[in-house]
Write a structure and sequence with these properties.
The chain has about 220 residues and is mostly helical. It has eleven helices and seven strands. It has a three-stranded antiparallel sheet with strand order 4-3-5, with no helix packed on it. The chain has a two-stranded antiparallel sheet with strand order 1-2. The two termini are about 25 Å apart.
Length: about 220
């Protein structure tokens, strides 16, 4: 990995904080973070239940519920034998024409029983609409202080160049629950772990030199 300039390092540090904030507060970004190899079908097959030490989410059950919501209007239930009927008003099982509208719970249970295959958008929406809520309820008190600090630090990047320097220094010391944010997530934005570690231990001026800092401030 090529050594970045001071300006590139500061930009990447800011981007890393924003990346971390997004995957912890934005439902779409959070969901995508769990999407293995950008393949929702593979994700569902590999992780029908998503869990870590903080929360547990039944993705497979959520997909059944999400799909039931989307297509509820096309399903009915035979009042005589209880069969689920799709786009029909006559039961093929018993011949009865007495049907009623299916309820979401009934349809989602049926979809689970038949091991239905769900489209990508159903899996993604289940994560966004249901999974993120489960996650946030479970972890909000744990990460709320970190989110507050990250947001405050990001505001500093909107000021003058000297504030950007201060913000980058500050950012290098912000910790999430299991470690340091910039060290642990910096690779997503082009930062090398060892370089971040050096800056954290030695300072920006020691790593990049006072001359480059002066040039950055002059720009």
């Amino acid at each position: 990995m090529n050594t970045p300039t001071l300006s590139e390092y500061i930009d990447a540090t800011r981007d890393t904080l924003q990346y971390w904030l997004d995957i912890h507060t934005n439902p779409e970004k959070w969901a995508q973070e769990w999407n293995i190899d950008d393949d929702w079908q593979y994700t569902l097959k590999t992780c029908p239940k998503i869990e870590n030490s903080y929360f547990e989410f039944d993705l497979k059950a959520a997909c059944a519920k999400e799909y039931a919501r989307q297509c509820l209007h096309t399903f009915r239930i035979c009042s005589k034998c209880g069969d689920m009927l799709e786009d029909q008003y006559t039961c093929e099982n018993c011949g009865s024409e007495r049907t009623r509208k299916a309820k979401i719970g009934e349809l989602s249970d049926w979809l689970s029983e038949i091991e239905a295959v769900y489209p990508d958008d159903v899996i993604e929406n289940a994560m966004i609409k249901q999974g993120f809520k489960v996650y946030r309820v479970a972890i909000k008190d744990v990460i709320a202080p970190v989110i507050g600090e990250v947001k405050h630090c990001l505001k500093q990047f909107k000021g003058a160049s000297d504030q950007w320097l201060q913000a980058a220094t500050w950012a290098n010391h912000i910790c999430h629950v299991n470690g340091n944010i910039v060290r642990d997530y910096g690779d997503r934005c082009g930062l090398d772990y060892d370089l971040v570690n050096r800056v954290s231990q030695e300072s920006l001026s020691a790593v990049f030199g006072q001359e480059e800092i002066d040039e950055y401030l002059a720009e």
